Amino acid sequence: MLFGNFFGDAIKVLPQHNVLAQIHFDGIGPFIAHGLQSAPFILAVLGFGLAWLLYLREPHLPDMIRDRVKPIYNLLVRKYGFDEFNQKVFAGVPSSGGVLWRIGRCEDHRWTGGERYGTHDRLLSSIVRHVQSGYIYHYAFAMIIGCSCS
Known about the structure:
This protein is mostly helical and 150 residues long. The chain has a domain at 94-150. It is built from eight helices and no strands. The protein has helices at residues 28-36, 39-57, 61-68, 70-77, 82-89, 96-104, 115-131, 136-149. The longest helix has 19 residues, at 39-57. The radius of gyration is 28 Å and the shape is flat.
């Protein structure tokens, strides 16, 4: 599957989108110099410098800055209120497991009619467990199959 022609022409790069053909390599020196001049590298160095200043040299500054911009700080710490929204709106919805648990329980805490629901849940989870393997190549294969079927 990996070394044969299993995927065939599933992934195509059009000539006008072939960025690898447009890259030219002048050697390791210019390559490193280009990397050191890039915005991500410069911002990372500035971030290290700011962290050193705020937490090693002047450790009182973070508390002072937080107190001056308290509303913005609270908004960011609360993650724009999305967690509270999800907790109020979605967490209150009963899950299928909770509903099946209530159906299957009786007054004296023994299982009665819910055994068939528990078996159904076990069967369904045994199927879904194999689909969600955690391996990236399984997900890539599923995406390729999905693209070719549509």
